[in-house]
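anyone seen this seq b4? input:
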Amino acid sequence: MKKHVLLIKEVLVLNSVNRIIMNRLGKIVFGLGIAVCLFSATNSIAQVKTHSSLRAENLEVILVKDIQHISDTTHHTHAHDPHKSSYKILHVNFMLVSSDPSVTGYKSVMMRLIDPHGVDIYDPAAGGGLFNLNGKETPYTFKVSTKLDGQPLKIDFLYNHPKHFRHGLHIIELYVDGLKIGEEHFVIK
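predicted toks r here
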C-alpha cells in the first residue's frame, strides 16, 4: 500500500514538472492523459540505450489527412468523432548518419509511435511487428530495411494509420539493432 501511495505521489510530482516544462516550451498540455503519457514514455526512454555510431538527423514529420492527398482519388466519408483528428497518414523522413564509416551492411530501422495515452500504435497488417528492446519484446509501428555503405542515407517512413490519429502529443522513437537513434514529437490539436 505504501508503494502505491508513493507511486501516486511521484506521478503527481512528475505531472507538475511535465506541465511546467511544456508551458516553457510553449506547447499546450491536453489534460492528464498527455502528462501520464509523458511520464510513462520518460520512464521507458530513460532505460533505453542509444546507438553509439548511428543517429537520425534532420527528422521531419508531415501529417496528411487522407490517402487521396497523396495519390488516390477515391473518397471515403466517415462519421465525425470529436476525439479523433482527420489525419491518417504520417510521413517521417530523416538522414541516417554514421559516426563510424566502418558500420556497413543491411540494417532494419524501426519506428515506434506512441499515442497520447502512452499506447504503442501497432498493427501487423500495416507493417508493425515486435523487436527486442532491453531484453523484452516491444511493438514497433513500421520498419524499413536498408543497406548502409558508410555514407549518410535518406530514410522515409510512410505510415497509413488504419483509423485516425487522436488529438494530443504523439512520440516517435527510431531504433536500429534495439538501440535508439532518434526521437521526435508532434501534437495534433
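Confidence is low (pLDDT under 50) at residues 26-46, 71-82. The chain has two domains: 2-44, 51-67+85-188. kinda curious what u guys think
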